[in-house]
Amino acid sequence: MFPFRALTLLAAFFSAGKSRDLTYESRNDSRCQFPPVSVQPWLTLPPTPSIPGLRKQGYVAVDDGVNIWYGLAGNPKSTSIPLLFLHGGFANSNYLGNQIACLGTGYSTISIDSRGQGRSYDGEGPLDYDRMTKDVIQVLDHLKVPKVNVVGWSDGAIIGFDLAMNYSSRVHQIFAFGGSYSPGNANTTAGEQPVVEEYFTRITEEYATLSPTPEHFPVVLDKVNTMFATLPQWDAASFARIPKSGPKIVVADGKEEEVVTRDTPYTLHDWIKPSKLILLEDVSHFAFIQNPSQFNNAILKFLAAQA
């Protein structure tokens, strides 16, 4: 069982809000269909997938000496702008494996495990989103990738927003799912949800398997919880820093979201101009594994519209 302190601190990061009715009807794309989902997929946490077709992986030593893990998959011959996949808090890049399987048919893909999480090492001092965003840029520099499309989940969506604010020339499009702008977006009951409890049990086990320093988990736990309780601290003026000529952005979430406040995507959509708002049916904060077909088709439709 994941420590109660971690559950309560994560719960303090989000709050349930009133949802307005906006539904995205997923496109039928044969490349990206998965077996039928359960009757109530938002109540499930399907198995963590793997990254299919991983053709290269390694570490980049960023400017403070920390080794950040990356993995390359997808179509290496694609001439399209590569897709960068960024995972959520405490997790790892495997969680977005179903999206890499689908989108990797037409794109080269890059996955990065955030510092202290997944396969990446941790460094001295606290964790914060600006530091993790800088890590992403330095990995892209090492790979000689000038620009990417970003698919970000939760913390990965927040890093996507940070990229848009501070490195807009490096990002073409962003599909930001389950992101937030403040610790005040807090759901005090998130830690009581069975799916969230199961998630924490799982990531604890996965950290022990994937991390090069599994004994470091209690330290990372405290660092991530502190980050959740204090960051990000953004408002409308923060998002106004994104140039009008900057990346095209989709703000996405599940209609059964149990972690991020259900008003948060509307606020983000209002603050990010221009942006598109998508809410996916019958899924929660873990939509990408609860109904991969719907999630993948939403990304495909967005990418096609901006091509």
Description:
This protein has helices at residues 4-11, 97-103, 129-143, 155-166, 194-210, 217-230, 236-239, 264-271, 287-290, 292-306, and strands spanning 56-61, 67-74, 83-86, 108-112, 148-153, 171-177, 248-254, 276-280. It is α/β, with parallel strands linked by helices. Helix 2 packs across helix 10 (292-306) and helix 3 packs across helix 4 (155-166). The longest helix is centred in the middle third of the chain and has 17 residues, at 194-210.
Please state the average pLDDT score: 90
Largest sheet: 8 strands, mixed
Structural class: alpha/beta
Helix share bin: 25-40%
List SSEs in N-to-C order.
HEEEHEHEHEHHHEHEHH
Radius of gyration: 18 Å
Number of strands: 8
**Poorly predicted segments:** 1-27
Shape: globular
Q: What distance separates the N and C termini?
A: 45 Å
Q: Give the spatial strand order of the biggest sheet.
A: 1-2-4-3-5-6-7-8
Number of helices: 10
Strand content: 15-25%
